[in-house]
Amino acid sequence: MSNSRANNSRADEFDLVVVGLGAMGSAALYHAAARGLRVLGIDKFNPPHQMGSSHAETRITRLAIGEGPQYLPFVARSHEIWRKLEAQSGRDLFYQTGGYTIAPQGAKTSERWGDFVNVTAQIAAENDIAYEVLTPTEFAQRQPSFVVGPEFRVGFEPSAGVVLIEQAIAVQLDLARANGAVTNTNQPVSAIEPDASGVTIKTDSGSFRSAKAIITTGPWLGDLVPAAKRHVEVYRQTVVWFDVDDPEPFSTDNFSYVMWPGHTIEDYLAVWPTPPGSVGLKAMRERFDQPCHPDTVDRTVSDAEIAQLYENYIEGRVLGVNPKALRSAVCLYSETKDEHFLIDYHPDSSNVMFASACSGHGFKHSTALSEAMVAQLMSGQVEPSLATSSGATALSLEPFSLQRVSEDNPPGDVQK
Ligand SMILES: Cc1cc2nc3c(=O)[nH]c(=O)nc-3n(C[C@H](O)[C@H](O)[C@H](O)COP(=O)(O)OP(=O)(O)OC[C@H]3O[C@@H](n4cnc5c(N)ncnc54)[C@H](O)[C@@H]3O)c2cc1C
């Protein structure tokens, strides 16, 4: 427990309690403390940790979001906030390496990734985001390590890059504490009970009272928000850092991330550039074999899984990479059926909001989403001043409502 406060606090001592301090919750705590709120953050582990959805070194971020226009204001604002966090903390978080997406031409947009390069290029054009579409030959001239067939197109966004995820969580928590936030770690919350005058947050060692609460428990969301449980499936993902012949071509100085969806959902490969202080080429595929629960999931990446990733996804496609795994990690996706996020008020109380199910693409938006959620919960609106300085677009949480995935609204209703 760090910076802990005794549990016998007076009623309504906190303006806001944030439950779960991963990507979303650490950001909520930071933004709440920056607003001058009396805020408590509670986590069942000691973040940043390796048990949820926010570890394994880096996350991709890009401004041209092929997943849908509702995300653009959030990722643009997140880029601004990361630069602010870097300035406030003196720590590097965001490497603007640029980023490549390789996708088959002409794939149906109803497929998981669809014609992702052309969809993204269109969104980039509509929003004045620099974006190039390259042939495989043009791409090979820039990144000779990749072997790409003629059926693909390659998109390149210079403003894209990677963010150090554990570092971002640590910085947000440190700055929140510096602004007066209290954090209780290694303290699981067992119940959140709203009533007419506020919220009681129960843990094994006592209870807290607060005017408001935010639940950002990631892959554990369903345990504390039963109404969300049936709309979210958790999937085990495996990440491997492979040995490389020469680290230089894969470093953040020389390399951009590559997202490579193929013809089917099984084909997806992503590789990340290696930030200073790390070694090896980080790679993952996406897997949706069996839903799991974070308390019981197998946390070991087997030799067979490593060999399969290398032989089926890396060998012959990315040159200069060896089959030897330097390290590996298991990390968790929380998926809704339409692959969009869930951010809403708790069905039982307008004093409680929750956010999760970031379906494998949530980190890049997380700090701006949480900033908007804190604003919405505390002042009833997301202030227009929070929109990016580069564009005056409003930040709206409405597209992420629980109601859209309810039985009355089949998948596809949300604007993609
Ligand atoms: C392998 C992988 C690769 C990804 N790649 C990308 C990418 O490149 N770009 C991108 O934008 N997104 C990516 N994502 C998605 C992104 O990482 C997630 O959307 C994001 O990190 C989710 O953060 P979260 O705060 O919702 O969950 P978490 O970070 O898991 O946080 C939940 C927190 O709640 C705590 N908690 C749970 N239950 C309780 C309880 N009862 N009491 C107290 N605390 C509790 C947990 O300990 C944890 O700290 C990826 C995800 C994975 C798994």
Strand and helix map with partners:
Elements: E1 14-19, H1 23-34, E2 39-42, E3 58-61, H2 72-89, E4 94-95, E5 99-104, H3 116-126, E6 132-134, H4 136-142, E7 152-157, E8 161-164, H5 165-178, E9 182-184, E10 189-195, E11 198-203, E12 206-215, H6 221-224, H7 226-229, E13 233-244, E14 257-260, E15 269-272, E16 281-285, H8 303-314, E17 321-335, E18 342-346, E19 349-356, H9 363-379
Parallel strand pairs: 1-2, 1-12, 2-9, 5-14, 12-19
Antiparallel strand pairs: 3-8, 4-8, 5-7, 6-7, 10-11, 11-12, 13-16, 13-17, 14-15, 15-16, 18-19
Flavin-adenine dinucleotide (FAD) binds at residues 19-25, 42-45, 47, 51-54, 56, 59-60, 188-189, 216-220, 224, 237, 239, 284, 331-333, 356, 358, 360-364.
